[in-house]
Every structure is written in C-alpha cells, then in structure tokens.
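Researcher: Please predict.
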Amino acid sequence: VIGALGGILLGAWTATKQYKWQDRSATLASLVLISTPTFVIAVVLQIITIRLGRAFGFQWEFLGETGVRDAPFIPRMLDRAEHLLLPTLTLALPLIAVYSRYQRNLMLDTLHADYVRTARAKGLTKRRAVFKHALRTALIPVGTLFAFFLVCLGLLVLRITHPTLPRPFRCPAGKLVAAAGAATKAPMASARKHPS
C-alpha cells in the first residue's frame, strides 16, 4: 500500500515536470531502485541509518534484532513498529519505483489528451485539470494493477495459512515445481514437458 501510494504520487508529480531535472532525477532513482536487489537496498539503508545516527549524534534504537520483551502491550507494539520501519522501507522503495514509472507514463498519455486540453481551454487551472481530469483517468490502470497484486498476495497468504484447501484452490503445477526444487532439477521448474 505504501509503495502504491508513494509511486502514484511520485509518478503524477514527475509527469507534470516532464523533461525537467525533477523528472530526470526521479527517473534515474526509479531505475536504480528497480535494478537493485532487495537485500542490497536493505544493507544500504542500514548503512545510511547508522551514518545519519552518527552524524546527528544519536543511536538508533530500532536497528538490530533485540527489542522490548517484558513490557506492557503498547510499548511492545511501538517497539515492534520501530523495528519494522527499515524492512517496510526496503520493500516499499522498489514498489514506489515501479508504480511511479507506470503512473508517469499513464499521466503523460492523459495530459496530452483532448479532454484535458479542452478543460484547460475552458479556463480550468493546470492544477485542477491535472487532478480532476488527467489523474482520475490515469488511476484506472494503476488501480487494476494494485488490485491484481492484492489478490495475488491474498491467495499467497491463504495458501500459506491453510495448506489443506479444497481442490479448486490447489494448483497441480505447484507440486511439480516443489518436486523439481527438491530434486534440484532447475529446468523442470521453468518449463514443463508436453506429453507426446
């Protein structure tokens, strides 16, 4: 959710600044984040957090694996939320980059559409035309993509939490991939041989 919201906002903003330094720097940052593996992003964020803590003279309490164990409910939950900050940011940054690229391209298509130009010609401000006409239209495909990701995530959680699901929810290819992984037959996991 954080990745989708951040990516939509960033993509819409960079589309309104097409070919300016804001657009180019956001594009560069997005491409770097998309190309970088998640574990590298995690280590880089830890290094940045430690260096910022040293530069400003304080120790980040939420770095590391230890936390408050024998405490009341609210302090324990706040401590867990602090410990989830960097992992959440690590997973959200690549998603922000992906969604921002989608949203930017969709916004550029709609910003040059006839109905947006007509709205501007009728006297709407650029901001109002962007938010009322262009952004609303450009959100439809991104909303569909977000809904698809949510359904996939829900099915994954459902499959993990309830391994004995009824037959329509089970996939026979899953057994094939699991067996191929256990037998370390990598080509079988990527392609299934058709019966002759």
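Model: The first helix runs from residue 2 to 16.
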